[in-house]
Amino acid sequence: MQWKNNTRSPKTVKTHQRKIHIWYLEICTEADINYKFCNDEKLSIYQAKLPSPELSRYMYTAVGGEFFWVDRLPWNRDLWQKYLDRPELETWIASYDGTPAGFFELELQADQSCKITYFGLIRQFFGKGLGGHLLSKAVERAWEKSNGRIWVHTCDMDHEHALENYKSRGFKVFREGDFEKILPTQPVGSWKGSNDDSLF
Predict the structure, then answer these.
(1) What is the reported pLDDT for 20?
(2) Of residues 18 and 125, which shows the higher confidence score?
């Protein structure tokens, strides 16, 4: 493969206003939880107990770059640190054969319910049966932290199986609706230029 010595400025990101459908889901009874664990010895899940802006931003962009996760892209390091330095927040990392594969964030709310604020796998690890296991771990830990209610929201820009995965673990829709948001016309990718094939 021939690599170009590319020194040009990054392309300007084009945006448009997009209509988004969002679902809010909850589990309020432990009996409704349907865990789906796998026995893949290459998969490990652990809590990142030391808050790290670098780690959290990496996971946010590596997972969400394909799904228009853009809200936190303008955050500087101090803002990330303040967000992470809160006792109500937990970050959990999934690794596969030693390589980061996904993550989830849990946030205890004022009413002592627990929200899965972010959840997902890096694209490289789609289709390996890991999503159900990772979500089961998130649900298990969220239930431990909560007062008996855990909740999450997803939208029609997330992975095509996201809603199905949540429902399969026992979540039920309690509200849904539409809203509009200004977003890039194309996914931004894991880093600026990561989806630009003209670099090769």
Answers:
(1) 87
(2) 125
CA distance 4 to 7: 9
Q: How far apart are CA 26 and CA 33, in angstroms?
A: 10
Place of tokens 């853009």: 70
Distance, CA of 101 to CA of 165 (rounded, Å):
17
**How far is the C-alpha of 13 from the C-alpha of 2, rounded, in Å?**
26
Domain spanning 31-184, CATH architecture? 3-Layer(aba) Sandwich (3.40)
Q: 162-197: per-residue pLDDT in tens?
A: 999 999 999 999 999 997 877 776 766 676 766 655
Query: 2 burial class (0-12, 13-18, 19+ CB within 10 angstroms)?
Result: exposed
Residue 129, H or E segment: none
User: Around Cβ 38, how many Cβ atoms within 10 Å?
Assistant: 14
Half-sphere exposure of 65 (CA within 13 A, CB side): 18
Instruction: Confirm if 157 and 68 have CB atoms less than 8 A apart.
Output: yes
Amino acid letter for position 189: G
Q: ∠ at Cα 25 (20, 26), nearest 5°?
A: 160
Q: Hey, where are the domains in the chain?
A: 31-184
